[in-house]
Amino acid sequence: MATEKTKQIITELKIKLKNELPGNASRSLLAPKYNGVNRIDPPTKSSKKSAVLLLLWEVNEKLHIVFTLRSFHLLDHSGQISFPGGQKENNETNSETALRETLEEIGIPSNAIEVLGELTPIYVMPSNSHIFPVVGYAKNYLDFRVNKDEVEEVFYKPLDFFSFNNVKVEKWNIRGEEIDVPFWEVHPAVSLWGATAMILAEFIEIYRNIGVINSK
Predict the structure, then answer these.
(1) Percent of the chain scored above 70 by pLDDT?
(2) Of the candidates 71, 89, 207, 83, the residue with the CA atom closest to the CA atom of residue 133
(3) Sequence-distant contacts of 6-13: CB under 8 A, at least 24 apart
(4) What is the mean pLDDT of the chain?
(5) Phi-psi region of 85 (alpha: psi -120 to 50; beta: other; left: phi over 0)
(6) pTM of the full predicted structure?
(7) pLDDT band at 72 (very low <50, low <70, confident <90, very high)
(8) Taking residues 130-141, what's their average pLDDT?
(9) Does position 97 have pLDDT exceeding 80, yes or no?
């Protein structure tokens, strides 16, 4: 059973996600900087539409976020931390895609998840993907069944861990360019950065401004 605090947070999140979203105002805090400038590109006409699920799960009376470590055999973003998700098929809604991919990747059925709303879409240039983030809440205990063809590992991290105060920044060489990369340290082997971190940054901005958190 969810705690009263979790119930209040979920109720407020559903309201906040229907209102105007912070978008790039918060996402830019986790955007890689090229020569000191954030590169947040608009989608192209040929971009592939995808959807991901930012899944909340209460563990030991605290909300956690579920992450996947992508398989090292994948062509795009292999070995990176991500949310469950993938390319849209036919006339699927964003939620339908995110829930289908979550079932395929980590074995969680759609009837175990309450969809709370959506975040601002984000374009990822290296894979030419226009990603539509969906926010969900796991209503029951999650019994992960990992599809090893797509996912190396599934793990979760307390939601309260994520603040803009514990973001670290390093210079990385990516495709021959030296880039300032903001990231969260959430896994012993891989940092959380890039599009997934930017999506999460927008959600954290919303979460930090709901009444239940501010009343602590």
Answers:
(1) 94
(2) 83
(3) 6/58, 6/61, 6/63, 8/212, 9/63, 9/207, 9/210, 9/212, 9/213, 10/56, 10/114, 10/116, 10/137, 12/210, 12/211, 12/212, 13/116, 13/117, 13/135, 13/206, 13/207, 13/210
(4) 91
(5) left
(6) 0.93
(7) low
(8) 96
(9) yes
pLDDT reading at 115 higher than 90: yes
CB atoms within 10 A of CB 175: 6
Instruction: Please give the pLDDT value at position 196.
Output: 96
Kindly state the tokens that stand for 41: 């590109």
Residue bearing tokens 């119930």: 7
Backbone angles phi, psi at 174, to 5 degrees: -120, 120
140 vs 110: CA distance, rounded Å:
11
128 contact partners, CB below 8 Å, separation of at least 6:
44, 46, 47, 48
Buried b / exposed e over 72-101, threshold 16 CB at 10 Å, is eeeeebeebbbbbbbebeeebebbbbbbbb
The SS3 call for residue 32 is coil
